[in-house]
Structures are given as structure tokens and as C-alpha cells.
Amino acid sequence: MKKRKLQRARKSTRDTGSKEDTIITTTAENTALAATKGEPTIDCIGNFIFFSTPSGEAWMLDHRKNYALRLAENYTVLTYRIIESSDRFQVEWKERFRLEGDLFIAIYKGEETIFREYPVEALTGLIGLIEEKRKTPPSSLSGKLH
After folding, report:
1. How many domains does the chain have?
2. Quick check: is 127 in a domain?
3. What is the pTM of this model?
4. Percentage of the chain modeled with pLDDT above 90
5. For 117, how many CA atoms within 13 A lie in the half-sphere containing its CB?
6. Reduced to 3 states, what is the DSSP secondary structure of residue 117?
């Protein structure tokens, strides 16, 4: 039997990328869309957390630097900027955030806005899991699964 060399398909210069190449952008779009329907969601990709609320808001968070990007407000998708390719991405962060008790606080140009009834407990738990996973060396995970 002859062996054939596998070749990757070449992307044209006009190719905008597949959904796999734009996972951050796609997740942001899906989260914003959920907010327009008032559907509560929470998702995590690496260190980034995406969530939408029944009150029509959606956010993308980078918990390491407390960056926040508002994706939707009042059931309407907002204008935001995420540039993504298959090997890198850039987010134009507009706000910062912090969690205090059961409050989500967004900071924009020094002005704070307090949001109540956000999934703060879920966000705090997810941030804890991300941090725990980041600190756990891969070798310590082997042998624990039986």
C-alpha cells in the first residue's frame, strides 16, 4: 500500500476563519444574543468568562486583570471590538470590574455602576476553579482518575 503525505488545506487571503478559529468572538456573539432574549448563561474559555443575565446584559471578563467588556445592555447588543485570528486575539477592554459580596461593580472612567441580581456566586466559584486549575501541575492530575 502506498503512503500518501497529508497536506493541510491552504486558506485564501479572503478567508475570515472558521468558528474554531474565532472561538472568543463566537462565544461573545452567542452570549450577547442570549442577553437579547433574556436568557441567563455563563461560559468560560481559558481565563475568560462570558455571562448574560435575564435583565438583558452580557459581559466578557478577564478576571486576572479585572477587565470587563459589556457585550449587551437592555436586551440590545452593543458595539464592541474583538479582533481574532487562529493564533491570537485582541480585546478592546472598556471597563474594569470587581465583585463585592453579592454585587457586581463595573468601573468606567472612574465611575462605578453597581449591578444587583447578577450571578456573583457562580462567577466567584468559576474564578476559583480557574485559579485552582492554573495552579495545579499537570503531573499531579495523573493517577487521580480511575
Report:
1. 1
2. yes
3. 0.78
4. 68
5. 6
6. coil
